[in-house]
Amino acid sequence: MATTNTTTRRIAIVGVGQVGGAAAYALILGSTTVAAAGELELLLVDNNIALRDAQVRDLADVAFIINRGTRVRAATYREAGQCDLIVVTAGSRQTLGQSNLDSASRNISIVRNVVDAMAPFRSDAVLLVVSNPVDLLTTLALEVSQLPLSQVLGSGTFLESARLRGLMAEQIGIAPNSIDIYALGVHTPSTQLTAWSTATVAGVPLSQSIPSSTLVGMQPVLERDTAHLSEVIVRAKGATPFGIGAVVSSICASVLGDRRNVRAVTHFQPEYGCCLSMPAVLGREGIAKTIEVPLSEEERRKVEESAKMVRGMMEGIRQG
Ligand SMILES: NC(=O)c1ccc[n+]([C@@H]2O[C@H](COP(=O)([O-])OP(=O)(O)OC[C@H]3O[C@@H](n4cnc5c(N)ncnc54)[C@H](O)[C@@H]3O)[C@@H](O)[C@H]2O)c1
């Protein structure tokens, strides 16, 4: 490793294709925020060595231009396991027409292997999983890494929650950061849940802060657009790197800066026996606290149904 300095924050990105590359780019642009008061070193890992080295060179140019002392270099799995924060974006992208199951089984084996190759982890390392299916792979990474529960999380429905607020803001003329609403549960278009029952504007329930005719009209459209926009983007350009890249950068800033922002990320839920997205307070330890959301009976039943699928797949993985 390069010589250490107490204020250097190290983030490893494992899998530097479209998503890993965009995450690295967002991290370099936001390096002052991400590394809190210190400097940022980005370690890139990929089993495609030519691609990894090309990404290092391309991203090093960005760092030179930004000129905030950020360093970018290639690294091994072992070095990645010793970083402050490790982002797992390794995987095979799901192509349209390919079944979820095909893509899931390849990513299960990839994520198991990369997490295994990084172990043993630095004791305070935080592991952030982005590869899909993200709830299953975060649950798997938690088991394989043997890190404490709080230190393993996944991007989950953070992006969908941000998208939901942004799309709603356009409809109702209120800024996104003044709307408190989350997409929760298991991250797929058919299983994630919009927590309408707990949504507020300025602490006032949505049902009292927006005319009911507006609310009823926009709910199905927002749900559909929030859940399916990624598919639309993938159909047109093959991947969705920028939104998720910004999500990674934001989570890294929250964790390394111990900022205590509340974000919908996937993390272990004892009640459901697997990782799925619920709002969490993010701090240096990863998940500082889960916010208990008082879901309606129907919302809870929907979350339990999809959690059952994740638990079933985990059981299949354990039995080999
Ligand atoms: N959670 C989300 O919201 C979200 C959003 C977008 C993409 N994704 C997921 O992110 C993952 C990556 O997507 P992408 O578009 O960047 O795909 P990509 O194919 O462009 O990149 C994947 C990279 O992983 C690398 N890789 C594969 N096996 C590896 C291994 N064993 N060790 C190290 N690197 C390895 C590949 O060489 C490639 O560079 C996919 O699983 C995708 O579904 C998640």
Automatic annotation (TrEMBL):
Keyword terms: NAD, Oxidoreductase
GO terms classed as biological process: lactate metabolic process
GO molecular function, one term: L-lactate dehydrogenase (NAD+) activity
UniProt-listed Pfam families: Ldh_1_C, Ldh_1_N
Domain Lactate/malate dehydrogenase N-terminal: 10-154
Occurrences of domain Lactate/malate dehydrogenase C-terminal (ranges): 157-314
Catalytic residue positions: 187
InterPro entries named among the record's database cross-references: L-lactate/malate_DH (IPR001557), Lactate/malate_DH_C (IPR022383), Lactate/malate_DH_N (IPR001236), Lactate_DH/Glyco_Ohase_4_C (IPR015955), NAD(P)-bd_dom_sf (IPR036291)
Chain sites annotated for binding NAD(+): 15-20, 46, 107, 130-132
Sequence similarity: Belongs to the LDH/MDH superfamily.
PANTHER family in alphabetical order: L-2-HYDROXYCARBOXYLATE DEHYDROGENASE (NAD(P)(+)), L-LACTATE DEHYDROGENASE
Name of the protein: L-lactate dehydrogenase
Organism (species): Immersiella caudata
Phylogenetic placement of the source organism: Eukaryota, Fungi, Dikarya, Ascomycota, Pezizomycotina
